[in-house]
Amino acid sequence: MTVTLFLVLALSVVIGLSLGVLGGGGSILTVPILVYVAGFEAKEAIAASLFVVGVTSAVSVISHARGGRVMWRTGLIFGAAGMAGAFVGGLLGGHIPGQILLIAFAIMMVATSVAMLRGRKKKNVDGAAAPVKHELPIGRVLLDGAVVGLITGLVGAGGGFLVVPALALLGGLPMSVAVGTSLVVIAMKSFAGLAGYLTTVQLDWGLTLGVTAAAIIGSLIGSKLAGRIPEAALRKAFGWFVLAMGTFVLTQQAPADLRWFIAAGVAALAAATAGICWFFISSCPLRNRAGRRSKIPSPA
Question: Is the pTM of this model over 0.85?
Fold first, then answer.
């Protein structure tokens, strides 16, 4: 086994972990790995990523379903509406310059991450978030699915980073259930997209199947972890992940002489936000976490 092949397979496990734990991020990770590490052409990498993400998501659904973390009717209806919306978005996206689409893609990722980090504002009588575990109304699912599909089709992304927030924030599902249900949607849209690409693209099936097998191993591990990680921590991890990837994509689309300036600006904004939270917001989680640590008595 060559060093490159070993690196590709090792990184493929991370793809599965992302899908299993977070319910998204598969396409965001798979395409760069196949292009920059495996040496695939862009269209071949996109087509292969659809196969990898589709199969991995489908396998990962099994573990989530056994744990009661899949709303089947919601996922299937959302996926069907998302496929229709993605088709329309793809038609529109063909008339928009690629750089503009990527910038829009990055901006939506940043906006999505902010929404996930803030969480839902709806509270129950005890002051805690009030997620629902029943199937969502069909009208709401169709509308949300079509809108998310339209957006993801327009910017050319798999959609996991938008499906999970749509189910968790708009639909009110618990984060762990939103993750499991999103995998149904991702698998449906991935296979639909793959069918279109295979009419014009030839894949290296040997390497593609190897990447898929490694990703499945990662997804099975991630599915076990997803049911044990606290919902708030899972939501924040997803938010920070999407924020980092969105910032990276946005930086890559900027002129070369402005990339360091943008990266420095994002870092300064993050530092300023943390400072404002610490000094001016009484309920700041940074301060509260530090306070909880300071109250732990030291051993005698």
Answer: no
- Can you tell me the distance from the alpha carbon of 192 to that of 190, in angstroms, rounded to the nearest whole number? 5
Write out pLDDT tens, residues 235-294.
677 777 777 777 777 777 777 777 777 777 767 777 776 677 677 666 665 555 545 544
Angle (CA) 134-240-111 rounded to 5° is: 75
- The three-state DSSP-derived secondary structure of the chain is CCHHHHHHHHHHHHHHHHHHHHCCCHHHHHHHHHHHHCCCCHHHHHHHHHHHHHHHHHHHHHHHHHCCCCCHHHHHHHHHHHHHHHHHHHHHHCCCCHHHHHHHHHHHHHHHHHHHHHCCCCECCCCCECCCCCCCCHHHHHHHHHHHHHHHHHHCCCCHHHHHHHHHHHCCCCHHHHHHHHHHHHHHHHHHHHHHHCCCCCCCHHHHHHHHHHHHHHHHHHHHHHCCCCHHHHHHHHHHHHHHHHHHHHHHHCCHHHHHHHHHHHHHHHHHHHHHHHHHCCCCHHHHHHHHHHCCCCCC
